[in-house]
Amino acid sequence: MGRHPTWPIHLALVAVSFVMLVPFYWVLKTSVTGENIFSYPPSVVPRDVNLFYYVDVWYYIPFVRFLFNSVAVSAIAVVSNVVFNALAAYALTRRFPGRKWVILLFLSCMMIPFQATIIPAYLITQKLGLLNTHLGLALPLCSTIVCIFVYKASFEAVPRSLIDAARIDGVPDWQIIFRIMLPLSKPAIATNVILSFIWSWNSFLWPLIVTRDKAMQTLPLGLSTFLSYLENTTGALYAFCVMVLVPGIVLFLLAQREFIQGLTSGATKG
Amino acid sequence: MFQLIRTKRHRELALVALFLVPSLAIFTLYRIVPLFWNLGLSFTEWSPFKPAKFAGLYHYEEMLFYDDVFWTALWNTVVFMASAPIAIALALAVAMLVNGDIRGRNVYRAIVFLSYPLMTVAVGIIWRWLFDGKVGLINYVLRGLGLTEKGISFLDSFEWAMASVVVAAIWQVIGFFMIILLTGLQSIPRNLHEAAAIDGAGAWQRFRRVTLPLLRPSIFLCLVIGIINSFTSFDLIYVMTGGGPANATELLITYVYRAGFVKNQFDYAAALTVALFVFFLGLTWIANRASGGDAGAVETGE
Q1: What's the ipTM?
Q2: Which fold has domain B40-290?
Q3: A69, A270, B20, B253 — which has fewest CB within 10 A?
């Protein structure tokens, strides 16, 4: 291996990276110039860089409102996943009658894709009076089975003696979770946060069904509505895309390792 | 005394079982109840403001014998699924490239993976525009290469729409497959390759006889994810084509949405959902069987 020159590999990888990055570059360029829309042929390097389209997005659509809705829904989903899943996972590490059945139930629930339940899920949310609310938007995502198993695996790795000692000292179970288990399970918490954040932040079908008015739309929904009445005719659409994508990209770059680990453990366990 | 310990322990366990309540409530409300409600709904004639009436197999008859769109959507779902092996092959190639001892491999990995966690709606809008007939980058390149005179409106064309959507889907998922396959590659012991090389196996033979067989679990995992994606890729289709032109990109999931929430035929959409679910379960079961039962398996810790 060592004797072979590595430049062909680099060449291939640069080509792959190029294909993966060009869409981002093109969208960024259009969002600051708009020139591919009005002039042909397009130039590769941006000319006349300006932020007009960003200003448009900020003022002509309730961007801040959409952002607030997205943040609210994701916050509800992330916090309840971190807490509820930890509780459930801890319960599953204890032997109690019927434990096997609960695990079996969880595993079979995992085989039901959420998309296969949208009609009754909508009717249930309606009956609960939660249509068009942040809670209604977040509720189906508030606990996820994959994340419970991620916690469970991590809790099982905590030394038994530590838990037994705490129990003998009379520490109640909920304190064992929050004082002992969670501080020792930081990677599992990270996985929970990242998965529930990505799922709720990117969620589209559910908000599309559940929201009624514009004031409750989340970012992906606002983006698609914007597309439906503007078509491709303005750079503002792409400025909007960039504004929506940037938080995700920044988060990814900051916590790359956790992202990749979290998403793959989400898949291998799900 | 023993009695006391027993009741104390029971009380403790009851408390622990309480910890399951929030999660169980959510799964009951949004997985289990909907599953059965949906099944019931598919046998009734019902719309939001009318009383329900038992309809027997009426919706299923309609779906199977009179609804061409259902069969188109089913076929498209299969086509979408069939793109998974292409994505896996490409991802495997990239994974093998970044598995080597080369400088900057983490940067390459990050670049390839970057598209996966991003919002699919935005990804769809970007690709919709790259594919645009007049000002799209792809047409610009094709024209520059002299492959086409006037631009192809990929997403409006009956022949190209599905392929275009599939390209966008592959672009988004490839980094994810790459990471899964990379994990698989790294679990192959190095000395296996060395032993095969000493025995005179060429690079291609080593790939076929050592790498591929040992990668089987990872490849099957990717395949299962590909199957799941073909049933859940609503966002991309909705934004890029809306299921058109003339249902050319209609998947089962987009059709369920359209029947239920655009045409307000909740009962019929429920029957479609049942078909989707049965098809999904059947496929994942087959995939699981074919892989020897460990693709996507969860260790229950029993």
Answers
A1: 0.88
A2: MetI-like fold (1.10.3720)
A3: A270
